[in-house]
Write a structure and sequence with these properties.
single chain; alpha+beta
């Protein structure tokens, strides 16, 4: 047990009574995690500085030319911002880290910052999902890492991810995404296989150098395969759109239902032949769970509206209902 006058175990250098005693419900790891998150957030709030903007704008123009027909400008600029900081002008990040190290008091946080000098781009396939981490396998090196989850949103095994990563300061091989962690629907798997083959054809090139040189090509390959910046497969997006259109046409709100159906599609990956079968099951599910103002439609009438059999409708209604119940039980 830590005494009130003992050094605080969080590593701040202060006495326990002057530091974390009043935060007994907050772990040292949480305190450090919050401090690191603030350091990352401050970086994106303060940079790039005015003197850096011409070079950043020029890089955006270079990337926009091949990508503007696939992605919106906001997404292109967000992707290029990390490329600019960590591939093209890494001295901006290193100078910022040096300033932060002079301000940080907690030794344990300082130790993590010393490991942050070389952010690396990481493209991987999700192989496992835990409460706080994803197990992700690098498509080039086949290395497995633990990547910190950014939310409780379900993540199916088999999706691919893209981000720049840094050690999160907990255990070896545990990382966090510097900015947005981008997920790609499973119907783009062929793009990552193609990219891996291109990398293997290169001689003695690191993944970071390969992606620095071929970044626009990678995103263009995704665009050519139909990627527009979303996390859903074409089939999943179709299910959601059919359900939305039906509720809109009947002057009903769809947000509450959509949130549950999105998670169900994303996590359960139902193997349906027709989008309308899942959408019809979703409407029955939403009506019976009070997720929108009742339409007073019978199961048969819902099936007729979507031109599906009642058995198909009921299959996905029951799957959604069971998923909803299981989600509520785990909360």
């Amino acid at each position: 047990m830590v005494g009130r006058n003992d050094p605080c175990p969080c590593g701040s250098g202060k006495k326990y009574k002057k530091c974390c005693e009043s935060k007994e419900t907050i772990t040292i790891e949480e305190v450090q995690s919050e401090e690191l998150e603030r350091i990352l957030q401050t970086f994106y709030e303060e940079y790039p500085e005015r003197k850096d903007l011409p070079n950043y704008v020029e890089l955006v123009k270079t990337w926009s030319e091949p990508l503007k027909k696939y992605l919106d400008q906001e997404m292109i600029e967000a992707i290029v911002l990390d490329e600019f900081f960590f591939h093209h002008q890494p001295e901006i990040w290193r100078d910022y880290l040096e300033k932060q190290q002079k301000k940080v008091v907690r030794p344990s946080t300082l130790e993590v910052l010393k490991m942050w000098e070389e952010p690396r781009v990481y493209i991987g396939e999700v192989e496992g999902v835990e409460e706080y981490y994803l197990t992700v396998r690098n498509i080039f090196t086949k290395e497995n890492i633990k990547l910190k989850r950014e939310s409780e949103k379900p993540v199916p095994v088999g999706m691919h991810t893209y981000c720049f990563v840094l050690p999160d300061g907990t255990e070896e091989n545990h990382f966090l995404a510097i900015s947005s962690l981008i997920f790609f629907p499973t119907d783009h798997k062929c793009v990552f296989e193609n990219l891996t083959k291109q990398y293997e054809d290169q001689q003695e090139v690191s993944p970071s150098d390969f992606l620095k040189e071929n970044g626009p090509i990678f995103w263009s390959l995704l665009g050519e395969n139909g990627y527009e910046g979303g996390e859903y497969t074409h089939f999943e997006a179709g299910v959601l759109q059919v359900a939305i259109n039906f509720l809109k046409n009947n002057d009903r709100e769809y947000e509450k239902l959509l949130e549950i159906v999105e998670d169900y599609l994303f996590e359960q990956q139902p193997n349906a032949r027709k989008e309308v079968a899942i959408a019809a099951g979703a409407i029955r599910f939403g009506q019976e769970n009070g997720l929108f103002e009742p339409l007073n439609l019978t199961v048969k009438e819902i099936a007729e509206n979507f031109q599906v059999s009642t058995s198909s409708l009921n299959k996905y209604y029951h799957e959604l209902n069971n998923y909803y119940i299981s989600m509520n039980l785990t909360k």
